[in-house]
Amino acid sequence: MGEQIRGTRSVCPVCLDNIPASLVREADGRVFLEKSCPEHGSWRVLVWEGKTDFDRWLSGAEPLSPEAGLSCPGACGICPEHEIGTCCALLEVTERCNLRCRYCFADGGKNAADPPREECEAAIRDIVRQCGQPLLQFSGGEPTLREDLPELIRFARESGCSSTQVNTNGIRLAEDPDYAKRLRDAGLDIVFLQFDGTRNDIYETLRGRPLLETKLEAVRVCTQMNLGVTLVPTVVRGVNDGNLGELVRLASSLAPAVRGIHFQPVSYFGRYPGLPGEEDRYTLDRLMRDLCEQAGIPMESFLPSRCDHPLCGFHASFLIRPEGGLKPLNAITHASRSRGCEKDNRDYVIRHWKRPLEEPNPRSGSSGDFSEEMDFDTFLYRLQYHSLTLSAMAFQDAMNLNVERLHRCSLHVYDRGRIKPFCAKYLSPVKP
Known about the structure:
4-stranded antiparallel β-sheet; alpha/beta; 28% helix; single chain; 17 strands; 13-stranded mixed β-sheet
């Protein structure tokens, strides 16, 4: 029997009914979410592997009170129990897609007609009314299949969204630079680019096609358009978890167009190959440890999410060394581990992921030799043009859903007039 760390609530993976749950730690440091449904039995899911200290990582996160979360997530639509506002709001503008990926949270690729432009504009106005000035992410399906996406981006900026982002597989951007230019001219700030690794066999396994050169061409087009790119790998054990160091080195070589990597350990909702076992789970702390070993990054570089629950993700900032490798910046720029509000988090994301103005010609004193004792002007220059952010979001599925985490989510999805936490919107029952 393990040690019960704290109680929470979850859902039955079969019927999705709200049920009690506990976080339980074994002697080897592994932490499991345990729960039992009166009708469908008991479940035990790995959530932490003991690669770094769980209690220290969780420090400052209050447990869910016994009377809270009783109606989550079935009655979700951002209720008074929710503890954080919207940092990023996601709007689906199509269900169509030009890929059929094995892993897809939205189960894209349907032939349904796109919502009319007027409906999308009404949704954008409603998002701004409910969320203030969010970072708005256009998603799908594949949003670049809409010819009027540039007009929607322009409308979002004019309506009060602080920044705009497109969640894309990059195929249209690589094949149609004029379309990418239209997106830029409309006010697009960030390209959130599906980018799973540095080898074609990874794409063949996860996406069904050898896409590496297409992805690199999308980056080249965005570089020409002065668009900031964040690489977004879905990390699957046995597929690309051994390629993380190479991906970090590639991203570093593509700066300043590539601003960061946002890792997403695979979660099991939407469309996925089958019911996962413990050996399939890829935990947040294993991701950090693999990055340490493969990219030469100190574990101390990683800090918990500044806005969401600590178990939802991490962030780490670096200067890129001219000779290769990364110099951690968290000790300088983010020493505080206290949680920020959604605006703080949004400002952090935009500051790190949005492309700076075109890099000037190096000036004396502005881009001098990299050293631990570099002058302040050189530091600021490299921070703007030669830096990289590594972050992660560990999405939840019906097996490992923790309502404590759900209450502190700042990534929200617009769903027919309601604002929902991402993991609540895409929650789906397990497949036998």
